[in-house]
Amino acid sequence: MNANVPEIRISQGQLQPEGGPPDGQPPAAAAEASVVRRFLLARGNSALADRGFQLLMALCALSIFGIVVLIVVELVLRSSDAWSKFHFAFFFKAYFDPYTGLPNYWDPVNEHFSALPFVYGTVISSLLSLLLAVPLAIGVAVFLTEMCPQALRGPLAFLTELLAAIPSIIYGLWAMWVLVPLMREYVNPALIRLLGWTGLFTDENPTGLGFTTAAVILAIMILPIISSLTREVMTAVPHSQREAVLALGATRWEMIRMGVLRNARIGIVGAVILGLGRALGETMAVTMVIGNDPKISASLFAPGYSIAAVIANEFTEATGDMYLQSLIYLGLVLFLLTILINGLARLVIIATTQKGAQTQ
């Protein structure tokens, strides 16, 4: 359609008559309108196609809800006996060894099962990984968006996103041969000398396997996710925000802090939550470096266990029905833990949005 022809709006039942152009309408526009009318009449009624498309889109949306419901139902049904036996005590109960007096949380021989050490290991390693990854990821995003030369921006962004494409088993192998010796020989002794007085860094595990090592490898794995999403959110901030802050006499750092990061904070929170979801469900890399010991220790150097790791290690070895159902129950716990954390994150986003709207 020619650019100089005005827009033509035709609604069903309100077509212009064929006899000549209306008053004041150019002949070319009238002829083109006649072509449009004939095309619409030749198509017939499109209500059926519209209803079909609407139904198809509704089915696509409902399929997500259906998948979640099927997962929950399957986990609940497959762990019904474990739920009937342990109930909520599965989350915190400890069984004490009659000979040593020490707590024993996971004893398949006597069918004593508790999720407490696995929930503890999953949460501690994931939160530590966020503590390490979030500042670094935001720093990378700020540099690539605001400070990086144009010639280096593309290669650095590609290398950052390439980290997300590396399989987790490769991270685990690299951690076993590089990261674990590095932590054992250099990092752990240095932290013990500097922060040993806190009780969080004690020399009770000389192998280098433990929560801290698992957190480091998780931080490397979730860094590209948080960094890429943060960079996209910062890029979406209008340049007028930057120019306005600079025009008021702000420095470059003040412009980034108040004009960019402040406006992108909701998206950054979403990126952090996605990274946390990846950390909670990571299996192979964590299994290879966390130590796989179902104990609870205050030391971050101590070996531990995560929910995903124990399911991956022991699912094929589960011989009894209660043993197998307890592992499936752990899967349900991990699913509920992920929903809980995402729900809390949603509340944080809503609170941040409302606070920002009130301050504006």
Short descriptors:
two-stranded antiparallel ribbon, MetI-like fold, two-stranded antiparallel sheet, 360 residues
| Sequence of strands across the biggest β-sheet | 1-2
Query: What share of residues are in beta strands?
Result: under 5%
Helix content: 55-70%
| Shape field | globular
Q: Class of the largest domain in CATH?
A: Mainly Alpha
Low-confidence stretches: 1-19
Proper CATH architecture of the largest domain: Orthogonal Bundle
The CATH superfamily of the largest domain is identified as MetI-like
Can you tell me about this structure?
The chain is mostly helical. The protein has two domains: 1-44, no CATH class; 80-359, Orthogonal Bundle (MetI-like fold). The protein contains 13 helices and four strands. The protein has helices at 27-43, 47-78, 80-86, 116-147, 150-165, 168-195, 211-236, 239-247, 252-261, 265-281, 284-289, 307-314, 321-359, and strands at 95-96, 103-104, 106-107, 112-113. The strands form two sheets. The protein has a two-stranded antiparallel ribbon with strand order 1-2. Mean pLDDT is 83; it is low at 1-19.
Describe, in short, the structure shown.
By secondary structure, this protein is an all-alpha fold.
